[in-house]
Design brief:
This protein has eleven helices and nine strands. By secondary structure, the chain is of the alpha/beta class.
C-alpha cells in the first residue's frame, strides 16, 4: 500500500480497508455542529462505526469541546442564531490547534443568506466540503454543466477537497478525482444520511492525512454498509438499524473487496 495516491489519482481498495482499521483503533472524537433533525442519527452512525461524537452548540463551551476533539463538523442544516454564534467560535478553536474541519452546506440552494454564509466559511480553510449536486451548483455559482468539472474548479479555487454525493459519489481536489459506486436507494428515504456521512468523513481525516483518500475511504465504507443493510431491509424503518449494524460489523476485508472505485 502506498502512502499517497499514484499520479493517476487512484486510491487502492487496500488503503480504504486500512483507513477503516485505523479509524476503529483510534476512535476519533468528532465535534458536530449539525442540524436538529440529524443530531441523534449522526451520533449513532459515529458510534456504530467506532467514533466518539459530541454535539454541544452552547457558545460558552463549544470551544472547549472542539479543543478536546480530533476534528470538527460544521453542518448548516439548522441555521439559527445560537448555531451561527457557535460556528464562529468552533472554527476559531479548530484553526488555533490546528485540527481539520469539514463543511456541509446543507440547502444553500434554497436560502440566499445560507449561501452567503457558506461562501464565507468556505474561505476559512475547511479540509473537505461535502454536498449534493444542487448544493454544488449553488456554491460553485455554476448551475449547469458537468458536476466533476464544477467540483474540480471549486476545489482548485478554494484549495479544498470537494466530495459530491449522489447515486455515484466522487471526490476531487481539482487535480485528482475518485469515483465511488454502490450504496442502496433506501438511503434517500432516511433523514440525515448525508449529514451523518459528512460527520463520519470528518472522523476519517484524523486517520488519513490525504483528504481525498480520507473522503474516498469514508464514502466507500458507507456505500458498502448501505448495500449490506439494503439486502434484508423491508423499507426505511428496517434499513436504519441494519445500516448501523453494518457500520459496526463489516470487516475491513469485506469493505476493501466490495469498494468500487474509479
Amino acid at each position: 500500500m502506498t502512502d499517497t495516491p499514484d499520479d493517476t489519482g487512484r486510491i487502492s481498495a487496500e488503503r480504504i480497508a486500512q483507513a477503516v482499521v485505523r479509524f476503529r483503533a483510534r476512535r476519533p472524537r468528532v465535534h458536530c455542529i449539525t442540524n436538529a433533525a440529524a443530531t441523534n442519527f449522526t451520533a449513532n452512525v459515529l458510534l456504530a462505526a467506532g467514533g466518539v461524537p459530541s454535539m454541544t452548540i452552547n457558545p460558552e463551551e463549544v470551544g472547549g469541546f472542539v479543543a478536546s476533539a480530533d476534528v470538527l463538523l460544521i453542518n448548516l442544516g439548522t441555521l439559527d442564531p445560537l448555531r451561527r454564534e457557535a460556528i464562529d467560535i468552533a472554527i476559531a478553536a479548530a484553526k488555533s490547534e490546528p485540527k481539520p474541519w469539514v463543511l456541509d452546506p446543507v440547502f444553500v440552494d434554497r436560502s440566499p443568506p445560507r449561501l452567503s454564509l457558506a461562501r464565507t466559511l468556505a474561505q476559512r480553510g475547511p479540509a473537505v466540503i461535502r454536498m449534493n449536486a444542487d448544493e454544488l451548483g449553488a456554491l460553485s455559482g455554476a448551475r449547469t454543466g458537468d458536476d466533476r468539472d464544477r467540483a474540480g474548479a471549486l476545489a482548485q479555487a478554494l484549495g479544498v477537497t470537494v466530495a459530491r454525493t449522489g447515486a455515484v459519489d466522487f471526490v476531487t481536489d481539482g487535480a485528482r478525482t475518485i469515483g465511488i459506486s454502490g450504496g442502496y436507494p433506501l438511503m434517500a428515504a432516511v433523514t440525515a444520511t448525508g449529514c451523518a456521512t459528512t460527520a463520519l468523513l470528518a472522523g476519517f481525516l484524523s486517520v488519513e492525512d490525504d483528504a481525498v483518500a480520507a473522503a474516498a475511504a469514508c464514502l466507500a465504507f458507507v456505500k458498502t454498509a448501505a448495500e449490506r443493510a439494503g439486502e434484508g431491509a423491508a423499507g426505511p424503518g428496517s434499513f436504519v438499524p441494519a445500516f448501523l449494524d453494518a457500520l459496526h460489523q463489516l470487516t475491513p476485508e469485506i469493505i476493501g473487496e466490495t469498494a468500487r472505485l474509479a
